[in-house]
Amino acid sequence: MQTPEKLHILLISNMFPSKKDPLFGIFVKNFKTKLEELGVQFPSHALIRGKSGNPFRKFFIYLLHYLRILRAALGSNYDLIYVHYLMHHIPILWLLLTLKKKPLVVNVHGSDIVELPTSGFLWSVSQSIMRKIDLLIVPTTYFQHLVIARYPFLEQSKVFISPSGGIDAKRFFPTTREPGGPFVLGYVSRFIREKGWETFLDALELLLQSEPQYRAVIAGKGPDEEKIKKHLSEHKLGDRVDFLGLVPQKDLGQVYGRMDLFVFPSYRKAESLGLTGLEAMACGVPVVACESGGPMTYIREKQNGYLFEPQNAKDLYQKILQYRSIGSKEREHMRRECLETAKYFDDAAVAKRLYKRLEQLI
Q1: CATH architecture of 4-165+347-359
Q2: Residue 128 has pLDDT above 80, yes or no
Q3: Are 4-165+347-359 and 184-344 in the same CATH fold?
Q4: What is the DSSP string of 153-175?
Q5: Nearest one of 291, 306, 361 to 338, comparing CA atoms
Q6: 184-344 topology per CATH
Q7: pTM of the model
Q8: CA angle 263, 112, 201 (to 5 degrees)
Q9: What is the pLDDT of residues 208-224, one digit of tens each?
Q10: Helix-strand-coil percent breakdown of the chain, rounded to 5?
Q11: Which residue in 187, 172, 333, 211 sits closest to 261, CA to CA?
């Protein structure tokens, strides 16, 4: 059996941080770092660092990416190939499968499965790839069921659950807040409609009726940023919402520490995990999330959070009130349950489980 020092991985990903885009594919970097701490080595890799930009530039970036993959794959200094994101690598994976002599592992994350057409050339090739890979990594049981429903020929033994790098306990941990402050809600996300920011802001407006002194924290970045700012201004919410914009990952723990309740209103089918919800729990903050996607796999109603109907601001509002109505002992119980849930997703523990499974392929 191989030892960690002898496990060499050819890493392939179309998402990896750069100086300009430090959060782009940060979970891939974290995945790599934690495995390296176990002694795993990455002598070869093919990575797209940072966002590609306009379609013309993107075409040439991917062309070079595929050439780097082919050159690295033809080498012999690795024990297995590990690919992040299926859809973006279908053309080159199809070629690699005709050449491969080493185990092939594919890690899917959400959109690369959900947004893949279920007919035509790409679908046909993806089926061929799924039949031949040695291991498929998915973030949650929710996504495991979704993938097997799409590819029913997949053997369950070839599908392994590993939650996207896990949570860094050195960055996300509970802190003590000063008593007597205002009730604080939080939202940390990419600013796109499907992430549910409209539902969150509508619930904030409803909350003015019963909780006029509340505060809210919003952090993130995305194409809808100006729409969010406009909504806050038009609905007179700006004076009670602290709009932080993009926050570096190293500072996010402090942001979660300001919150009493974290709101995760995303209704994307491709929401395969919901890592920000888990980061909040690691800081001892209960989560109220949309009853959709990955968060359903770790939120236990009234234990570590609440679930609400997708795109239903009134239901979200009611769940916020429900949390506000419980006593201090119940809140402390929920806080402890959040921390207990987060333990399973600790990045070191996640890396160890993944390493043991990869080791079985060698």
Answers
A1: 3-Layer(aba) Sandwich (3.40)
A2: yes
A3: yes
A4: TS-GGGEEE--TT-B-TTTS---
A5: 306
A6: Rossmann fold (3.40.50)
A7: 0.91
A8: 20
A9: 988 889 999 999 999 99
A10: 45, 20, 35
A11: 187
